[in-house]
Write a structure and sequence with these properties.
Elements (H helix, E strand, L loop, with lengths): L5 H10 L7 E7 L7 E4 L3 E5 L2 E6 L6 E6 L4 E7 L2 E6 L2 E6 L7 E7 L5 E5 L2 E5 L4 E8 L7 E9 L3 E7 L2 E6 L3 E6 L7 E6 L5 E7 L2 E10 L2 E10 L7 E9 L3 E7 L2 E6 L5 E6 L7 E7 L5 E7 L2 E6 L6 E6 L7 E7 L6 E5 L2 E6 L2 E6 L7 E7 L6 E5 L2 E5 L5 E5 L7 E6 L8 E3 L2 E6 L2 E6 L7 E7 L3 E8 L2 E7 L7 E7 L7 E7 L4 E7 L2 E6 L3 E6 L7 E7 L6 E5 L2 E5 L5 E5 L7 E6 L7 E5 L2 E5 L4 E6 L15 E2 L10 E8 L3 E9 L4 E10 L2 E8 L6 E9 L2 E9 L2
């Protein structure tokens, strides 16, 4: 299941087409998210935010698998083969039966919350500040969760929620410990609230004990408290102990055996350890400084203590060894991937940039891309370009670097060039062109390990995108006269040391990207259209068509008669540009994040989607297929193949009539009927969702009138 953009749905209707059959999902990696929530079991660490990803629960913290999700998750719990996420729009279920190939399962809209708990066949999501709405969702079928109840209470500010037995416990800033009876989940009932010394920020449940930490600011300093309640009778909790400490901001707590580990959100941050072997008299044991400065959770599990840190650009999951429970020792850290914004490829590798790293990803199996290497940096990355076996990395205000990528498993730095802040980089003919605020900087890179600045073209506005072909440099420039009016400029760079202005064309709108195909340039941005320019005469570029397209666009690439557009919030849109005077919208795929950058290696499409690297598969429909139509039924090979979860099957009917499409396993047993009814003559397609099938060889068969045809496909999970 994936989200559907309302905007692209409107476009499908506007252009009177069926687009979903032409482009589909193949694989993903580089799941990027701050670790808003963490769940741990004996095998994996589950990290949720803009994505859900799994790490090995060991000393290495290796990335295993994941999936980008349609809306940000704030909490996660796991049961069996499913992960349950509380998002701001509703419960999201993820199938983790194959940890390497996690996939979205069911979703319950209008059950949004910041916290989640599981109770039997029910998931309970709790809304955030000032609006205590507890939604109860049946997850008996994780692919079809449904809301079955809710409970509301006002003036409550929950900070953490845990379920133990038939009771739900909440740490609340206003009310302290808040208890709800969920013995009959569809109808939760209020038990009571019990005041704590300070506003409650965190809690943990251990047997019949609920431990709550809270903090308050007064007298010019923070004061922290640890309180322990005996909840043997949840209707009458007994306060066993209350401890108050000055100069501590107690924020989160985790209990393991006879020790409570408390994260102190102070300066410096620390882990405070209490001996709770006697819960009526907890003893402060020791304090240990830690690196995380913006921790959102602390979890003691097995011989490890895990801290989830939200610190921008350097956050992640930090593991401390607590084999000696009173002496946490730093072990390792998984650095969060933040914002996948640019993508390039070479052969069986994709290169993608995130906030502070360059990633090399093996796509030999596009359904299961694997990270080869991550090269962390100290600055942001503004663009990537691959030319021959060299990767050019544009580094914010620090210039650009050149890497030798001729070896599959390495990124070898061969040059580090310092220059003024640039917005993009394009390489052609032994030169690198960098658009800067005042024009274009030109570098001779014929000797890659010793680039040399050779020229500069001064412009009246800021250059946002460039392409170089032969002796010409094509530039999108904005802000020359009006900040909302962009121009398409052509520069003669036959002598790169002395670039010369040649021509210009007004675009009448904000434009962010263009791509060149044949003798045409295709421009997109915020101007509500796909604009096509004829550049066959570089001295006289002119607009030949403007196709309405009311979507904010960030990038465009063209190949093989199609234009692929990254539409930010609405994913990828595809236009047939075989007739540049009348481009036709033919397909769309709404990616889970924000589509920033795309590269084409047809039939594959690589997308830097902010929350992940996405790999899509594109197959044209018969409208663009020059082959003659057969006079008998025709069954095409499914795509993608091999596939994971979903694949598309196309077929042709020479005449209107009844048709049946069945799926059989390797033993010849029918496992599903995809269609059984009447179809008009012509080409059609059907999507097989094999999410609940096991990996292996399957056969799909079409029967129409007296004709039958069968093909084989391979499901790989």
């Amino acid at each position: 299941m994936r989200k559907i953009s309302p905007i692209l749905c409107a476009l499908v209707i506007m252009f009177n087409i069926s687009a979903a059959q032409e482009i589909g999902h193949v694989g993903s990696n580089l799941w990027a998210t701050p670790p808003y929530a963490t769940y741990i079991d004996s095998n994996f660490i589950y990290v949720a935010g803009a994505s859900l990803y799994l790490l090995t629960n060991d000393d290495l913290l290796e990335l295993v698998g994941g999936v980008a999700i349609p809306s940000a998750a704030y909490d996660v719990k796991v049961s069996g083969n499913y992960a349950y996420l509380a998002t701001h729009t509703g419960l999201q279920v993820v199938d983790i039966s194959d940890p390497q190939r996690c996939r979205l399962a069911g979703r319950a809209e209008d059950t949004g919350g910041h916290f989640i708990g599981l109770h039997g066949q029910f998931a309970l999501t709790l809304a955030g500040l000032h609006d205590y709405t507890l939604y109860v969702i049946s997850v008996a079928n994780p692919y079809q969760p449904r809301r079955v109840g809710e409970y509301e209470h006002t003036s409550i500010e929950p900070e953490q929620m845990e379920i133990s037995g038939d009771y739900l416990y909440t740490a609340d800033l206003n009310l302290g410990l808040y208890v709800v009876d969920i013995s009959f989940p569809p109808h939760p009932s209020f038990v009571g609230n019990f005041r704590t010394t300070y506003p409650a920020y965190g809690l943990d449940v251990a047997d019949n004990l609920v431990l709550i930490v809270g903090s308050a600011w007064y007298g010019g300093q923070h004061h922290g408290s640890l309180q322990i309640f005996d909840t043997s009778d949840p209707y009458s909790p007994v306060l066993l102990a209350g401890d108050s400490t000055q100069t501590r901001f107690f924020y989160k707590i985790s209990v393991k055996d006879n020790y409570a580990y408390i994260y102190n959100f102070g300066n410096p941050p620390s882990i405070e350890i209490f001996d709770i072997s006697n819960p009526t008299s907890p003893l402060f044991h020791s304090s240990h400084s830690v690196d995380p400065s913006s921790a959102v959770s602390i979890i003691a599990f097995g011989p490890s203590l895990f801290i989830s840190d939200l610190e921008n650009t350097v956050g992640g999951i930090i593991r401390y060894d607590i084999a000696d429970p009173t002496e946490p020792e730093y072990s390792t850290m998984y650095h969060t991937i933040t914002g996948v914004t640019h993508v390039e490829f070479l052969d069986t590798r994709v290169f993608a940039s995130s906030a502070l790293a360059i990633h090399s990803v093996d796509i030999t199996d596009p359904t299961l891309p694997q990270i080869i290497q991550a090269r962390r940096d100290s600055t942001f990355h503004e663009g990537l370009f691959v030319d021959n076996s060299l990767l050019y990395d544009l580094r914010d205000v620090l210039g650009f670097r050149i890497y030798d990528i001729s070896f599959h498993d390495s990124l070898q730095l061969i040059a580090d060039v310092r220059t003024s802040s640039a917005y993009d980089i394009f390489v052609a003919g032994g030169y690198a062109y960098l658009p800067v605020f005042s024009g274009i900087n030109i570098f001779d890179i014929s000797v890659p390990n010793s680039p040399d600045s050779v020229g500069h073209f001064e412009s009246e506005g800021f250059a946002v995108d460039i392409h170089a072909i032969d002796q010409y440099l094509y530039i999108l420039i904005g802000g020359q006269v009006d900040p909302d009016i962009f121009k398409f400029n052509v520069i003669d760079v036959s002598d790169p040391a002395m670039p010369a202005y040649l021509s210009s064309c007004d675009l009448n709108g904000i434009s962010w990207s263009f791509s060149i195909g044949g003798s045409n340039a295709y421009v997109v941005g915020e101007n509500d259209s796909l604009t096509v320019l004829d550049i066959s005469d570089p001295a006289n570029p002119n607009i030949v068509s403007k196709t309405p397209f009311p979507v904010e666009c960030w990038d465009i690439e063209v190949d093989d008669g199609y234009a692929f557009i990254a539409t930010r919030e609405s994913g990828i849109a595809v236009f047939d540009i075989s007739d540049p005077y009348a481009p036709e919208f033919v397909a769309s795929f709404d990616t889970p994040g924000y589509a920033h950058d795309i590269k084409l290696n047809l039939p594959y499409v690589y997308v830097a989607d902010n929350s992940s690297l996405e790999i899509l598969y594109f197959s044209p429909t018969s409208a663009n297929d020059p082959k003659p139509l057969p006079n008998t039924i025709s069954l095409s090979q499914n795509y993608p193949n091999p596939f994971n979860a979903q694949t598309t099957i196309e077929y042709y009917l020479p005449q209107t009539g009844p048709v049946t499409i069945d799926i059989f396993d390797i033993m010849g047993r029918k496992v599903e009927t995809l269609y059984n009814g009447v179809k008009q003559a012509g080409r059609h397609a059907v999507v097989w969702d094999a999410g609940e099938m096991s990996s292996g060889v399957y056969f799909y068969r079409i029967r129409a009138e007296n004709d039958t045809e069968t093909r084989k496909c391979l499901l790989m999970k």
